[in-house]
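Input record, target 12 of the design panel.
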């Protein structure tokens, strides 16, 4: 079963640690933020979902010691993913191997909700929600990134994202 909980907001220790505050978050709470989690056993199930939601493109992201041999280049890559950002389109991520954490920002409480991302986990991240991603201390993830249109993953960082239509529509939807 997927683990989701409120992040402890402790930035003194490595961000790849669990940072579990001890407060769990349910899938129902996530769905109220427009975030959907599914455990999909097969690639066919992923393809069916992608088709149903009109996803036309995909790529594979592979972050590991093999692809980033030195700690500094790995940290540089991770710091981009871990910067609070949003996208103007919905995004789907499916874990093929390894593990990571997806953090989504609750726009009402401002809490970071951390979702553990492991093989066969699929997460639908709605347009306009602030989020970030990190590896765990295992330093390895291989994931499918699904795109509705061209494989563009323009990230709009905080605070620029606040004035985007995607953010304003999202916050209105949640409220
Ligand atoms: C994103 O948009 O935040 C990402 O693609 C993170 C890496 S996907 C495992
Ligand atoms: Ni993103």
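The sequence produced for target 12 reads:
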């Amino acid at each position: 079963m997927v683990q989701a909980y409120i992040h402890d907001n402790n930035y003194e220790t490595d961000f790849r640690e669990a940072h579990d505050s001890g407060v769990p978050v349910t899938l129902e709470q996530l769905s109220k933020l427009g975030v959907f989690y599914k455990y999909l056993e097969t690639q066919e199930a992923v393809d069916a979902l992608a088709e149903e939601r009109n996803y036309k493109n995909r790529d594979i992201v592979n972050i590991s010691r093999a692809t980033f041999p030195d700690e500094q280049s790995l940290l540089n890559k991770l710091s981009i993913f871990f910067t609070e950002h949003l996208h103007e389109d919905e995004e789907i991520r499916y874990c093929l191997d390894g593990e990571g954490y997806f953090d989504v920002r609750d726009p009402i409480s401002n809490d970071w909700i951390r979702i553990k991302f492991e093989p066969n986990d699929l997460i639908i991240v709605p347009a306009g929600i602030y989020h970030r991603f990190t590896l765990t201390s295992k330093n390895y993830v291989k994931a499918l990134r699904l795109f509705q249109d061209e494989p563009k993953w323009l990230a709009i960082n905080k605070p620029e994202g606040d004035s985007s239509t995607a953010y304003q529509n999202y916050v209105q939807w949640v409220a």
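Residues 71-81 form the longest helix (11 residues).
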